[in-house]
Amino acid sequence: MPATILLVEDEPAIQELIAANLMRAGHHVVRASDAETAQRIVRDALPDLVLLDWMLPGMSGVEFARRLRAEERTRGIPLIMLTARGEEQDKVSGLEAGADDYITKPFSPRELVARIKAVLRRRAPETTEDPVELGGLRLDPSTHRLAAAGAPVTLGPTEFRLLHFLMTHPERVHSRAQLLDQVWGDHVFVEERTVDVHIRRLRCALEPSGHDNLVQTVRGSGYRFSTQQESPAPVR
After folding, report:
1. pLDDT tens-digit readout, 200-234
2. pTM for the whole structure
3. What is the distance between the alpha carbons of residues 63 and 81, in angstroms, rounded to a whole number?
4. Model confidence over 76-132: pLDDT tens digits?
5. Dist CA 138 CA 148 (whole Å)
């Protein structure tokens, strides 16, 4: 599944080479030549992954990484550091600043694409094309198909993305605001109750197969996908 990647690299030739290979792999690339520009881009819309050069004019890549990890809105963005500094302590510094991976220049385009795929699979599985099977449901994002106990289920595009996100983060409770950011995008301004409407549509689509109870409401908190059924409240 194409990911939106923020490439922060100040060397024009290297930036062009990396961007060309990422676009060839199917990703959408947003470019910045310094951390200050990258900050403005992130403020407007969250990317799926940040590819960050260590040595940048002005604010360093390491400092920018620390700032991303310090804010609740941006701390979950997958981050890969690019650098010519290959000493062990440099790698430790990059990882301690919050990088999910560290690639030393020069590197092959194939290695970079593979590392990006691995980080996205680990940190943002909803951005990959890997099929997900859980609780009797099988969702395949590459073909946009959902099956319940082997039988096809038709979902609208928003319900499909919503279910994909919930299934790739099972047992975790997500607030309406979090679901809006992750499924609709944090730059899209819609009412939080919109989530409730699409949850109802999703449950209606899953009800004939008996899988609607996998999408659970956690009172006062939000929603989760769970194969564990809640115990009924005690009768008083």
Report:
1. 999 999 999 999 999 999 998 899 999 987 654 44
2. 0.63
3. 12
4. 889 999 887 666 666 677 677 888 888 888 888 889 999 898 888 777 776 777 899
5. 7
